[in-house]
Design goal:
The protein is α+β, with helices and mostly antiparallel strands. The protein contains eight helices and 18 strands.
């Protein structure tokens, strides 16, 4: 009943706290024979790592991952696979915390920070780790990104990429969308002209000791038709649940999402024409999923993240004794959690799609395409 796990055939369990000695995850259900080295995971962790710019937390964590179990290598394995491979048993990953400053949180040890999960967590468990939010901290998402690195190797031919499309009130111009730009600026922004606007906005927010929200969009290309299941195994429902489980996420939409409510039936319908490999869709308002099952189009979703709740502005609250107080949160925090959310959104999407692939293969069989990317 602790609910620290998600997935079905590919099962991910995360563990650890923000200021504990380490955090990590256990990935169970990964097929055997996939090439997996720490470098395969580290490349994704480095994209999420804190301390890489003035608009993110200055906590300096190398986020070096260690693989503790679930892989094997000897001469025969190297000759056959070229290196270390998964064995089909649980893969345990660990990331040490090396730059925690617990003293920054002594002032709020008995205070409930507005906007945080302090009160709800305390109401449920009667005890809470206030150091950096403990288990509630976005630090936990490092383990998700590590798990997502493994998931990316499972779903064949699927490419997953995310971009930040809005910070505060400033949204990108979609006519200028360029995926290559997401790799050349610190915001994962696909609109080069918006980078300066966001920098100015964030500088104002940072100097004021405040915070701002954001929207991340994710796209999964190469998902074939047929993944997911109707009614209680809907691919969009499981994707939405996974994305909503990310810290500070307050809304998820698939495809046109809430904008579909303003469309007519004619406009919303994704018309089809005949193609060599099946139907060719003329639009993608459905976000690549109909009836809970993938259509073969790109799977597209967006996640809205609230402003970071840790701010310097005094906010009214209460403490554990019920006394009315004012709270100012010190420490090192992201003025916009959405900036580092893109790698997390990608990872959760990868985990959901890899699990969907394994379940689809288990129920309907598979055409023999090799699993993995090697």
């Amino acid at each position: 009943m602790s609910h620290n796990s998600f997935g079905h055939l590919l099962r991910v369990t995360t563990w650890g706290e923000s200021h504990g000695p380490a955090l990590g995850c256990v990935v169970d259900g990964c097929p055997p024979g996939l090439r997996l080295d720490p470098a395969d995971i580290q490349v994704w962790l480095d994209r999420r790592r804190p301390g890489q710019g003035r608009f993110v937390t200055q906590r300096q964590e190398p986020d070096q991952v260690r693989i503790l179990s679930g892989v094997f290598e000897d001469e025969a394995v190297r000759a056959r696979f070229g290196g270390q491979v998964t064995t089909g048993t649980p893969i345990a990953l660990m990331i040490e915390n090396v730059d925690a400053r617990s003293r920054d949180y002594s002032d709020i040890a008995r205070a409930f920070r507005p906007g945080h999960a302090d009160w709800s967590y305390f109401a449920k468990y009667g005890v809470r780790d206030y150091r950096g939010g403990g288990r509630q901290s976005a630090r936990e998402t490092a383990a998700r990104v590590a798990a997502g690195a493994i998931a990316r190797k499972i779903a064949p031919g699927v490419e997953i990429r995310a971009a930040l499309v809005q910070i505060g009130p400033h949204a990108i111009d979609r006519s200028r969308w360029d995926w290559a730009q997401t790799l050349s600026n610190p915001f994962f922004c696909p609109d080069a002209a918006m980078v300066e606007v966001w920098e100015a906005h964030l500088e104002t927010v940072r100097k004021a000791g405040s915070s701002t929200g954001a929207i991340v969009e994710v796209e999964a290309r190469g998902v074939p038709a047929g993944w997911g299941a109707p009614v209680y195994g809907k691919l969009d429902a499981e994707l939405a649940a996974a994305l909503m489980s990310i810290n500070a996420a307050k809304g998820v939409e698939i495809g046109a999402g809430f904008a579909a409510a303003a469309l007519s039936g004619e406009d919303n319908a994704d018309e089809m024409r005949s193609g060599a490999g099946g139907p060719v869709f003329l639009s993608n308002h459905a976000g690549g999923i109909l009836g809970g099952i993938s259509t073969g189009q790109d799977v597209v979703a967006r996640v809205a993240f609230k402003p970071t709740s840790s701010i310097l502005t005094p906010r009214r609250s209460v403490d554990e004794a019920g006394a009315e107080i004012e709270v100012r949160t010190r420490g090192r925090h992201d003025p916009c959690v959405g900036i580092r959310a893109a790698p997390v959104v990608e990872a959760m999407t990868a985990c959901v799609l890899a699990d969907a692939f394994l379940r689809h293969r288990g129920q309907t069989g598979y055409d023999g395409t090799p699993i993995g990317d090697d």
